[in-house]
Design goal:
heterodimer, A: Ubiquitin-like (UB roll), DNA polymerase, domain 1, 2 domains, five-stranded mixed beta sheet, 5 strands, globular, B: about 325 residues, five-stranded antiparallel beta sheet, three-stranded parallel beta sheet
Chain lengths: ~210, ~325
């Protein structure tokens, strides 16, 4: 019988490769492989909380928040898609706001409070958005899903806070949840499997339950 | 990414001083454009000065009746501010037409003004680009130029300024406030911030080395009907082919700036006398002297029609 650890590793490697292939066509003109790091690493200290747990790190100043989460804290739920802010797979919630964790340095987040997909729910106790994705089949390969879910949770909070969007008809009144609003506000999360209609259904259901 | 040292600035003047006194220093605020470019080694700072702690993140009433927007106010916060939505709708609309929700949550007011072009040849380090590597040539002139500039460009560079926000601010006659390394401050009209490329497209602004933008001030509300119309290849999360920021008064007069077509937000005050005569006349005056490529000549017609549509909407 193979070592379960080995199976897990292989499965992960496969998922990373699949995700990379899936993300490529969406990345546009400025997406290309990154040159190798150059220069002597400079280390800096930073501490922040992730999913309620405090972490202190001494890391290369170049480390993005995404790499700090995945490579240093081993929270691999947050995915690296394009690594250039174009696909949204790396979306996490920092101090209540959704951001691309690939386009921010870990050391810029001293004392911040970070929520990743691991902090939203567990397999036994799903977050309502996670449950709605399962119910509405809001994914196929699943690679964009953690980013979609973190983005969706914070997106509904943005609507609740009265933040307008490009499709909000009247800037002087608060936007209501609608398919058009959800689609516009989620345009920073790409799904190469094209599960969009089911993703919108899942988010609409969660919004309705909250309303 | 190249290795760099890092510091958190403690005051705007200290940040400017540190930037001027440290070779290869760059400010970082939202980081959404700078880190993208650092990963590709298009930007290679050896020292990064984090200005996020400078408390320049408030929007206050200005003494002259306008609004003073701190340099670190995030794009989401600016677009959602009640005063901006009520009195400067064109600015709120322009912000909401740009980027994605995640990016707007991080991107700052000053960073948005200073973002670099998205010309594909600027991003492709295997190709010559006068902006990235002065004197190396322009690949865009004979290349894929559909997205690129049609006016205000030069034989050295046809890149566009990618911002939506800046186009609205130009139409609104915003003023930029800065602090210099010697702690002196100055203000300038937004029209004077961005340079024409000429033979030095790598010099994009009139800011001195180390000079830090601290605020953007909007004048007293201009009233009128305020519209931002953006034409792009996707319904969301794409840069403008052409955009129009307009403040149109009941008598047909107004202020208009265009995005997606030039190295800076494109406004020609003298052309605004033509606005009451309609989009065709106003566009002809605005775009006088345009030098499109074969691939982007369509932008002339697109700009004229977009402006016409905006003027019709304002009249309706």
């Amino acid at each position: 019988m193979p070592d379960p650890g080995e199976i897990e590793l292989n499965r992960r490697a496969l998922m990373v490769a699949a995700g990379a292939c899936a993300a490529l066509p969406a990345m546009g003109a400025n997406a290309r492989s990154q040159p190798a790091p150059v220069g002597t690493p400079v280390l800096a200290d930073v501490s922040f909380s992730v999913n309620g747990q405090q972490h202190a790190l001494a890391i290369d100043t170049r480390t993005t928040l995404l790499d700090a989460l995945r490579e240093h804290l081993h929270l691999t739920g947050t995915k690296k898609g394009c690594d250039h802010g174009q696909c949204g797979a790396c979306t996490v919630i920092v101090d209540g706001q959704r951001i691309n964790s690939c386009l921010t340095l870990a050391i810029m987040h001293q004392s911040a409070s970070v929520t990743t997909i691991e902090g939203l729910g567990t397999a036994d106790n799903l977050h309502p958005m996670q449950a709605a994705f399962v119910k509405h089949d809001g994914f196929q390969c699943g690679y964009c899903t953690p980013g979609q879910i973190c983005s969706g949770v914070a997106m509904l909070d943005e609507i609740k806070a009265g933040i307008p969007s490009h499709v909000t008809a009247d800037l002087t009144t608060a936007a209501a949840v609608s398919e058009a609003e959800i689609r516009e506000r989620m345009s920073g999360n790409i799904c190469r499997c094209g599960a969009y209609s089911n993703i919108v259904e899942a988010m609409t259901e969660v919004a309705g339950r909250q309303g | 990414m190249r290795a760099f040292t890092y510091e958190r600035a403690t005051s705007p003047a200290a940040a400017a001083k540190a930037a001027a006194g440290t070779r290869g220093a760059k400010f970082i605020a939202g980081g959404t454009n700078l880190l993208d470019l650092m990963k590709l080694q298009i930007e290679t700072p050896s020292h990064v000065i984090d200005v996020n702690g400078l408390k320049l993140d408030t929007i206050e009433a200005a003494p002259e009746g306008g609004l003073r927007i701190g340099a670190l106010v995030r794009n989401t916060a600016l677009a959602a501010d009640e005063r901006v939505r009520r009195d400067y709708g064109v600015l709120s609309r322009a912000l909401l037409a740009g980027a994605s929700g995640q990016l707007r949550n991080r991107a700052t007011t000053a960073g948005n003004l200073l973002q670099r072009t998205r010309c594909p040849y600027f991003y492709d380090t295997a190709q010559p680009c006068n902006k990235r590597e002065p004197g190396s040539g322009c690949s865009a002139l004979g290349g894929f130029s559909r997205q690129l500039g049609i006016i205000g460009t030069s034989d050295a560079c046809i890149a566009t300024h990618p911002s939506d926000m800046a186009v609205a601010m130009r139409a609104l006659d915003a003023t930029i406030e800065t602090v210099k390394p010697d702690a002196s401050t100055r203000t300038m009209p937004i029209a004077e911030l961005h340079r024409a490329p000429g033979s030095t497209p790598h010099l994009e602004t009139t800011l001195a080395p180390g000079e830090l933008i601290t605020a953007v001030t909007l004048p007293r509300p201009a009233g009128g009907t305020q519209i931002y119309r953006k034409v792009r290849d996707r319904a969301s999360y794409a840069f403008a082919l052409v955009s129009v920021a307009a403040i149109i008064q009941r008598d047909g007069s107004g202020q208009v700036a265009l995005g997606g077509i030039a190295p800076k937000p494109w406004r020609v005050e003298a052309a605004e006398a033509e606005l009451p005569r309609g989009g065709k006349a106003a566009a002809a005056a605005l775009l006088n002297g345009a030098r499109p490529t074969r691939e982007n000549a369509f932008k002339l017609m697109l700009a004229e029609r977009t402006l016409g549509a905006v003027l019709s909407e304002a009249r309706a």
